[in-house]
Hints:
This protein is about 35% helix and about 35% strand. It is an alpha+beta fold. The chain has one domain: Nuclear Transport Factor 2, Chain: A (Roll).
Amino acid sequence: xxxxxxxxxxDKATCLRAMEIMNxxxxxxxxxVYTADALDREDHEHPPLRGPEGLHRSASxxxxxxxxxxWDVHAVVQDGDLVVLHATxxxxxxxxxxxxxxxxxxxxxxxxxxxxxxxxxxxxxRMEGGKIAEHWANRDDxxxxxxxxxLPPTPAYIVKMVRARRQAQRAAKV
Length: 174
């Protein structure tokens, strides 16, 4: 996506900007498009963070795991206070990806195998006063897992995953 100048009355442009800043935006950039108490229903880290800081934390986690991340938006529709984007996310896993259970417990850790991926997603945004108050998504995680070589895992990769998960769990207790 190219840089977007956001008109505060244009909810679709605000949501496009939100996707754009996932790859390189600062907390200040997130504050321009998200309400102070915005809820990201995709964030299961602990402690839960709302608002621009929470969304920036999610973006930082994705940035640490995937390089060359991008979202190609195919369609944007709005109905009342809901804006929906259909997109393809792509990138390369160059770092470790961590999945969390609701409540913040580490569920799984996926060390990088250096592979690329391209999967479809639908992002839902609830708007409030020209900013995003809530976000949730439907993603093709199964296709992503297969493309990144997480599924089916080889025995050697299972060992790497178990070691990485134990390390992440120990780090979370500190």
